[in-house]
Design brief:
By secondary structure, the chain is an alpha/beta fold. It has twelve helices and 14 strands. A hairpin with a 2-residue loop joins strand 12 and strand 13. Helix 5 crosses helix 6 and helix 9 packs across helix 12. The protein is elongated. The model has no long low-confidence stretch (mean pLDDT about 85).
Length: about 300
């Protein structure tokens, strides 16, 4: 089985509003996969459908090779999940909350409680009441609860909410460790920079629809339409390059230039033409390289094109 989650034309309507719009999603096994989009894009609704917490209006889905909701119990046996803010019994300790969850699972779940608490950094606070926990600590306890299932798949909805910078850094390392063990992490987030640092692949969702999907490196590279140039006369170079047909904008960038190309512009031939023009005009070029777009740049460019087409 290559994919731990697959959906086909998955749709959820609330009256006249379409929250999830004909989504085809494939989450590869053994990867950190980001489901990325702004707040209100339908991310949590999709997760709730995968977990059988709300019914789809149309479409099909499988989790760990089993159809949901018809085989929900079997599908979720090796799944751990946090949906929105994790909830606990406030008057009980962190450890006692995990004991309650473990009682509903196989006997081996009890043996995982101590290691789960230690893994999320809560061993020293495990016997404190949850009402004394910060939001970040509750997030950690939610992840510990997921680990009781010895999950093949973890589904985490906005998991870095409430974490301080040190906690976010620890969370990144934690996800990488899980993937190294052969597990899969499906992470829903609106924080583009965090998804870029944590995940191997991503689906970008906007207004309930997936608008791009694949490895992060591929999504970034396909929207790379700018070139950084180091030269000895940026002012004159800027005037020369602004007249090229494939160039839409030329900006001064420190002691060099940043040239933005048209979306349909061919990168390599245009770079060669830029170099030829500058050198022929007596401008010494000491650096000329394509600018690697960040995931944030790719996301903003994709969604802005959708808005223009609307």
């Amino acid at each position: 089985m290559d994919f731990v989650v697959e959906t086909r034309a998955l749709t959820k309507r609330f009256g006249d509003r379409v929250a999830v719009d004909s989504v085809d999603l494939q989450v590869p096994r053994g990867a950190a996969f980001g489901y990325l989009g702004p707040n209100g894009a339908g991310k949590t609704t999709l997760i709730r459908m995968l977990l059988g917490l709300t019914r789809a209006s149309a479409g099909e889905m499988t989790v760990l090779g089993r159809p949901v909701p018809s085989q929900r119990a079997e599908a979720l046996r090796r799944v751990g999940a946090i949906v929105e803010e994790p909830r606990f019994h406030e008057h009980l300790t962190g450890r006692e909350n995990l004991w309650i969850v473990a009682a509903a699972r196989e006997p081996a779940a009890h043996a995982r409680i101590d290691s789960a608490l230690a893994r999320v950094g809560l061993a020293e606070r495990a016997d404190d009441r949850v009402r004394t926990y910060s939001q970040g600590m509750r997030q950690r306890l939610g992840v510990a609860r997921c680990l009781l299932a010895d999950p093949e798949l973890l589904i985490l909805d906005e998991p870095t909410n409430g974490l301080d910078p040190a906690g976010i850094n620890e969370f990144r390392s934690f996800v990488h460790e899980l993937v190294a063990e052969g597990r899969t992490v499906l992470l829903s987030s609106h924080l583009l920079s965090e998804v870029e640092r944590i995940c191997d692949a991503v689906a970008i969702v906007d207004r309930g629809r997936i608008v791009a999907q694949g490895p992060i490196a591929d999504l970034s590279a396909r929207d790379s339409h700018s070139i950084r140039i180091g030269c000895d006369d940026p002012d004159r170079g800027r005037s020369l390059l602004a007249a090229l047909g494939q160039v839409t904008r030329v900006d001064t960038d420190g002691d060099g230039l940043r040239v933005v190309l048209a979306q349909n512009g061919a990168l390599e031939p245009t770079a060669a033409e830029i170099n030829r023009l500058l050198v022929a005009s007596g401008i010494a070029v000491h650096r000329l390289e394509p600018e690697q777009a960040s995931l944030e740049q790719a996301f903003l460019e994709i969604t802005s094109r959708l808005e223009d087409a609307a």
